[in-house]
User: Fold these one by one.
Assistant:
Number 1:
Amino acid sequence: MTEHVVLDAQIHVWKASTPERPWPPDAIEPQRAEPLEVPEVVGILDAAGVRGALLLGPTWEGSRNDYVLEVASADPARFGAICRWDTADPEASERLAHWREIPGMRAIRLSLNRGDVEEALAATRASGFFAAAERYGVPLCVYAPGRYELYRDLAETYPGLRITVDHAAIETADRPLPEAVAPLAALAKYPGMAVKASALPCFLDLAAERRPFGSITEAVYRLVDAFGADRVFFGSDLSRLPVPYPDLVDTFVQHLPGLDPAERALVLGGGLGAWLAWREPFGA
């Protein structure tokens, strides 16, 4: 489909709840009834011409990393693992000193969109997690929709910390997508801040818009204008994607004519690989 290396910045994968590997008793409903396991993901990526993806265990499985680390460590040229972490535990924060020794690990995810977010943030700050992540060079993927002041505070308090804004900090389709990404431009001045252009079809009025999804094209242009192509990363959030995966890939590969080839290569995967020092998909 393209000569560029295409990497998907986020796909949830999980297994069914079993007595040997149970989900938490208070688990939320999964995004689909059938577990999305790696063999299915491989087939979908192959069909769309996508080289690889970052895998993340979903919240309904609990804070576990076993599946994604198993897969990423076995095939680092195809998969990387975004891990969950006990961010409230000071001892766990200090263990970040050894994170590079965990095969397949590329980043840590903080989900700040449910529950008592303020309490979670206070505990995370008190544990020294953010300071340790900055000290030891751990990239973070933070989903805190609409909380632009939080992203700004983290960037200013921990200027050496690398933070990716997950799903462009959007949660609903209550306004046009190009308008919804516009507030992120104020964060672009912080060199440690990047953005996942991920899950974007979830925030479209699909009754009014069809492929090639001009709103996605316009939103990506706005993000690239603000952050530069090296800090904007294609992603799908496949398990809840409301459009066919090849259609979304096609939008990024074929329908961003305002980007030159070098910029397109960065958005499709080159920028993500550089941001995370994930060299294996590029033959390094």
Number 2:
Amino acid sequence: MGLLDGKVALVTGGGGGIGRGIARKFVREGASVMVAEYNDDYCATIRQELVEELGGQAEVLKADVRVKEQIQGAVEATVERFGGIDILINNAFTLSPKVLLEHKTDEMLDATLHSGLWAGWWAMQAARPHMIARGGGSIVNFYSIDVETGAWLNSDYSITKSALRGLTRSAAHEWGRFNIRVNLLSPAAMGTVFQKMAADSPGFAERVAAMKPLQRNGDPEEDIAPVAVFLASDMARFVTGELINVDGGLHMPGYQSRPGNVAEMEQQGG
């Protein structure tokens, strides 16, 4: 018996990184999983992993969560394929170029808000009536330590994550009457962005691990996904409006993000 037997989940951005880890763990725990993914390569590989490797009940849908009709379509496709939806994992996100706040453009902020805040808003609104029909559900949104540290070069990202925290708390408060639980995860793991930074900067992985009290970097499937399973399962039936840091303790000491070449970046402009 899995912790998610009989549950139906939609995982956005589930083809790589943390989303992939969650999709894999959900299938292992017995959930039927719809993955909404934009990257063609990820679409192919995650379907092979979930269906052929793990033998799970899973489907993969190519979708751009920045487009309202596509994220709404992903919810409807989940219901049509599996008969309902119990779990919504709003993981998908698109990052803008890492530039100084004064060089961030309206277009960058707009794109970031669409991939994070608007996508989450649309997905939650679309899933709500279907969750009510099932007697309730669990929604997991994602927060970031970048908000707490005021991370350099990520202003639009931090704005979006801050807004998602407000959305999560409001939905948890209002939708509790439908037995819909809404929580936040704040992860730090070896996801897609981490892997790129590690490849571009020798020693990055070791430096980041040293910042954490647990002295290691998190694995998406083994360290982050189990907490998502907890929040999605009946074990968390009395947990809502909560923020859970899953970062090896990094939220306690925080981190310094000021780049060493600020003067050079100022000259580069937007």
